[in-house]
Protein 1
Amino acid sequence: MPGSRSDTCATDGASEGHEALPEDAFHDLAVIGAGPAGLAGAVTAAELGLSVVMVDAARQPGGQFYRHPAAATRATRPEALHHDWPTFTDLRDRLRTGGVTCLFDHHVWTVTRKAEDDWTVHALTGDVDGVCEPGDGQRSTRVRARAVLLATGSYERQLPFPGWTLPGVVGAGGAQAMLKSGLVLPGRRVVVAGSGPLLLAVAASLVTAGAEVPELVEASSYFGYAHHPRAVAAQPHKLTEGAHHAKALLRHRVRPRTRHAVTEAHGTDRVEAVTVARLDDAWRPVPGTERRIDCDAVAVGHGLIPQIDLATGLGCATRRTADGAYALALSPLQETSLRGLWSAGETSGVGGAQQAMVEGELAALAVTFRLTGRRPAPLSRLRSLRRRRDRMNAFADAMTATHAPRRGWTRWLTDETDVCRCEEVPAGRIREAVTEYGARDARSAKLLTRAGMGWCQGRVCGWAVSCLATPAPAAPPEEPPSTAPDRRPLATPVPLGALADLPDPAAPLAPADPAAPLNPADPTDPAAPLGPADLASPLDPANPADPADLLDPTEPAAPLDPANPAAPLDPANPADPADLLDPTEPAAPLGPADPAAPLDPADPLDSANPAGPFGPASPLDPVGPAAPEPRLLPPDPHLPSPAPHPPPHHLPPHPTEGQPS
Amino acid sequence: MNSPLNSPSKPTELVGAAPDPPFTITFDGRRLDALPGQSIAAVLWSAGILSWRTTRGGGRPRGAFCGIGQCYDCLATVNGRPNRRACLVTASPGDTVTTQEGNGHAGFEE
Ligand code: FES
C-alpha cells in the first residue's frame, strides 16, 4: 500500500525501501512542494551542502507542470505530453545525486515555528484521500528545519456558469492533470474555455492525445499583451512556448476565439452541448450572439490563484496581483515577511514553470548564504537569476493583467446556478445575502449562506462568491474583485487527533516577533552593503542603467562578514538598510497598511520607471532595468489585523460536521 | 475494454505505455479494466464514466472536476469506505467502487 515515503530519492518516487524519518531529524531546509520551484530549490540547496528534505502530497516529483504517469504504467515516452521534459529529468537526476530526502505522499496541513531558525512542517501520510473517516493507515509526521521554502504552486480559478456542475464539465487544469498522469480524456469532443495562457497548453495536450477541440474560447483579447511590449520582448522563451502550442493547435485546426465565453452547459446527466456567446469589454455576454456547440466535455478555467494558505496561516504579508488575487509579498531574494520562511514559484505570483525554477534556485542561494555564510559562487549567477526573475515578473504581470476576469461575467449567472459546488449554494442565495441581509464581503456571504464552507473550503467558489458579495465598484468594470487572501488555517482536512498532537497548541501559530516580519535588511543580498554612491560609480559606462553590472563579483564581501551573515542587521552598522525604515512601525507588514512597501520598492535607478505610483525609491534592490513589479498595494481592508491567530482548537470543524440536516 | 470515448486508447499509445497486464476493478458491479498506476478516477474516465456520486442536497450527479485533490467533487465509496477522493486513490486489483449517495453514510450508521 502506498504508505508514507521517506527515501533519499533513490528512484522516481517509486522506492520500496523507505525508512521512517527520525522524528527529531533536524534539516537545514524543508521544501514544501516538488514542482518546478521546489525541485530547483531543493537540488540547488543540496548541491551547496545543505541537508534538504522535500515534502509533497503526490507520489512522485514534478508537481502539476511535470505531472506524468506513474512508474507502473511503464510509459516509454512520458515526454510526449511535455515540451520541456529534459529539464525535469535533469532536476530529478540531481535530486537523486544531491541526496535530498524526499517525503512523497505527505500532505502538509500546517507549518509552525519556534524561532526564526526552528520550523516544523506538519504532514499527514497514509490514507489521506478520504475526508470523512480517518483511516487506520493515517499518520501525522513532523519535519523540523532551520528554514522553509514554500513552493506549493497554485490552483485553478473557476467562474461558474449555468450547468457547470454537470459531469463532463471539468477544470481545464484538471483535464490536463488527468491526461498527464492517468492517460485519460474526459470525452471525445472537448470544448476548452476560460481565460489565460494555460488554455492553449490544455487544448494542445487534448488534441495531441486524440481529442477533438471544436472550440477554444478565450474571454480576454490577446491584444492586452500589446500594452506591455517591453515585458513581452524580454521573454523570448514565452513566445517559443506559445509557438509550440500554436503548432499543435494549427495542425488540428483549432483557432482560439477571443472575447467569447461558455455561458451555459446543457444536458441532464452529463454535458451534451454548450452555449458560447461574445463578450463586451466588461465580459458581459452580448445578447443575440449565442451559438450552441455540441460536445461531450468542457475543460474550463480562468487562470491560476497562488496557493498561499500555509503562509497566511503564519501571518505572512501578501500583495495583490494585477487580477486581484493575492500572492506572497517577498524580499528581493524570495524571503517572505517572516524571517526564515522563503517562497518560490506560483506562491509568489503566477508566472509559469521557468520563473518558478529561477525563483527556486535564487531562494536556495539566499537560504544557503543565510545559514552558512557561504556566498554564491560565482556571484554573477545570483545577479543573473535576479535579473531573469524580474523580467519574468514583468511578463507575468502583463499576462495577469491581460487575462484578468472582468466583473461583467456575473451577468451569465442565473439565480439558480450553483456557485458553491460543495454546499450547493446558488447565486440567488448569495445575492439575497447581499441585498436582503447586507453582506458586503465574501466572509459575511459565507456565514449567511454556507458558500465556501464545504469540503474544499472555498478553493473552487471563493473567487466567485467574492465577486457576488462585494458591491459593484464605482470604478470601471476592469477593477478586479475584492477578495481576501486565503485564510485557511488548515491546508487539508485533518483529524482532530492530529491537532491535539500539536506540541504547544497556543505557541506555534502565534505571529512572530513583530519586528521580525519586517526583515528588510537582507544580509544575503550582495547589493545591500553598497550605498547609493557606489551604484553611481561609472564601472560600466556602457550600461549605466543596469546597476547589477556595477557589482564587482571578484570583490570580497567588504562590509559583510561572511562568517556572520547577521552582521548587517547590527543597528550600529550605518549601511544597514533597515535604518531606512521607520522603527516605530513594527507592525506594518502584518497590519492593514501596505504590506509590501518595505519589501520590494521600485528600482530607484530605472529612469524609465521612476518610483512613481509604486512608492518611495530605495536602494534596497538595485538590480535590473526590467520594469519594477507593481508589488506595492493599496491598503487592503481584508488583510488580517496583527492580532494573534486563534489557537488550533478554534479551527473550523471537520468537514463532515455541521452538515445541513 | 476500451470505451468508445477513449477508443483507441490514444493517450496510452502516445506515451508508449507498456504496462503490466491490466487488472479489474468493479464499479457498481460492472467490471472495468485498470492500468497499474492509474487513479480510480482515471479508470472510471477511461471507461466513459464521468459521475460516481450524487450530491447531499439535490441528489445531482458529480464526478472528478479539479483532478488534483482540491475540489472534493470526486468522492466515491471505495471498498466500503465512503468519501474517498477518487482522483487521489490509486486503483488496486479487485477494488470495489460504488456510487456514493448524499453524505456517503447510507448504510454506515452502525
Ligand atoms: S477531482 Fe477534485 S478532488 Fe478529486
Protein 2
Amino acid sequence: MMRLLVAMLAIAGWVTSAAAQNISLLNVSYDPTRELYADFNKAFAAKYKAETGTTVAIKASHGGSGRQARSVIDGLSADVVTLALAYDIDAIADKGLLSKDWQQKLPQNSSPYTSTIVLLVRAGNPKKIKDWDDLVRPDVKVITPNPKTSGGARWNYLAAWGYAAKKYGSEDKAKEFVKNIFKNVPVLDTGARGSTITFVERGVGDVFISWENEAFLAINELGKDKFEIVIPSVSILAEPPVAVIDKVVDKKGTRAAAEAYLNYLYSKEGQDIAGKHYYRPRDPEVAKKYENIFPKLSLLTINDDFGGWRAAQKKHFDDKGVFDEIYSQ
Amino acid sequence: MDRRRNRRRRSVIPGFGITLGLTLTWLALIVLIPLGGLFLKTAELSPSEFWSIVTGTRALNALKISFGLSLVAAAVNLFFGALVGWALVRYEFPGKRLVDAIIDVPFALPTAVAGIALTTLFAENGWLGGLLAPFGIKVAFTPLGILIALIFIGLPFVVRTLQPVLEDLDTEIEEAAATLGASRWQTITKVIAPIVLPSLWTGFALAFARAVGEYGSVIFIAGNLPNISEIAPLLIVIRLEEFKYADATAIAVVMLLASFVILFAINRLQRWSATRTGHA
C-alpha cells in the first residue's frame, strides 16, 4: 500500500515537473507574418531554453486579422495575439479577455515593428505608375484585398484616403478619390496573401497595393525581375500590434513565457529578425542596418491623422460606413 | 392486424421505439440545436432591423447571385450529369473505372483546393483562361467563374443519384418498347424518362443545395465585388468580421428558409412526376 502511494506520488511529481519543463504557447497572427514568426519562434525557443531550462513549443495560427480576432473571441485559447491592427485586439479586449489599456503595456504602442503601404508594379512599370494619382486612371487595374475582411487592406485604404485628404484638402474629394480607386479593382480577395497571389501568380492587375514586407517577399520569393516597388509620396505608418491575452495565460499559467515572448520582439535579435523579414525595426540601431532597404517616406499615423482605430473603423469600415457607400451606388 | 404482426416479426432491426428515439436525439444534437442557435441569435434583432438587413441592396444582390447561379449550375449538372451517368452505365470503354472514380473527386477534394485549381486554370494567364481571353470571355473573377465552381462541386450528385436507377433499367425494356412499335422518341419520353425523372430531380435538388452553401471554392474565383460577384456566404463572413453576429445569422436564416422552400418545391415536383407516371 505504502509502496503504491510512493509510486503514485513519484508519478504525480514527474508529471508536474514535466509540465513545468514543457510549455506551449499559441501565437494567433495574421496572414503575411508566416515567415517572420517561423523564424522568430525558433530563435525565442532556443533562447528561452538556454535562460530558464524550459522548453517552449510555439504554435502559430495565421489568417485574416479580423477572422483571427474572432477565433480568439470565440474561444481559441491564444496566449498572445500579433495582429494587423489595434482595432482587432480592441475587439478582443471588449469581450474582457485582456484589459482595455493593453496598448500601453508594451513600448511603442505595443507595435515592435512597423511597416508601410507601397505600390507593387510589373517590371519596367509599363503603366508608368508613380503615385496614388495614377491609381484612379481608368486604364489602370488595381489589386487590393477587401478592407472588410482584411486588416491589411484597411491600411491600404487609409493610406490612399490620407494622400487624397492631404492633397485636395477635403473629405468629399478624398471619398471621390478612394471610390475611383475601388472602381478600378477587379478582384477583392479576402486576405492579403490572396491578393498577392492574384497579382503575382494569376497576372491580374497593373498595380498591387501592398504591405511593404509582402511586396519585398513577392519580389524575392516569386520573381526577381518581374516586379518593382513604387514608393508613393505619402503613405501610412502601419503599426501591427502585439498583446498577451490575460485570461488565457492566467488560466494556463504561461504568463511569464508569453511576456518574455513579446519582449523578445523588442530585443536586438528580435528586431533583427523583423528587419530580415522586411518589417521596419523600431530599434534605431537595428533600423540603421536596414536603412538602405527601407526608403524614407512621409508617413501618416493612425492616431494623429485618423483619430485612432476605433474612430477610423467606425467612420470607414463599419456597416454603412464610407466603404459601404463606395459600393452602394 | 395479422399482417402487421407478421411484418414486425420479420423486421431485422428490433425496437421501433428505441430506433426512433435515437434518431430524433441524434437529429436534434447534430442539426436542430445548432439551427435553433441560429434563430436564437437572429432573435436579438427587432423585426424591422431584420427586414432592413435582409432587404439591403447588397444582401439582396448577394442572395440573388447565390440562388440564381446555384439554380443555373444545378440545371447544367442535371443535363450533363444525366449524360455522364448514361454513358457510364450503358457503355463499356477503356478507362471506364477511372472515369467513374474521377466523378467523386469534387466530393472529396477540399473546396479551397478546387477553388485555387479552377482559378489557376481560368485566370487570364491560365491554360483555359488564356484560350478564352482572345474572344473577350473572362471567367475567373466574374460571375461566370462562380458558375463554373458551382458546376464543378455539384456534378457528382446528379451522376450518383441517377446511376443505380439506370443500372436497374434493363435494355430489354427498351427492346420491348421497340418491338411494340414505339419510336425512339416515344421510348425516351414514355418509357425511360418516367423511371429516371424522380432520381434526376433528387440529384438536381442535392446539387442545388450544395451550391447554395458553397464558400471555399467560390471565393477564390469569384472576384468578390459587392453587388456583382459577392456570394451570400461571403457576405455572412464579412458581417462576422465586423463582429456583427446577429446580422450574419439574419442572412443565414434567409438562406435557410429560401433553400427549404425551394427544396420543398423540388420534392413536390419529384413526387408529382413519380405519381403521374406510376413509378412511385
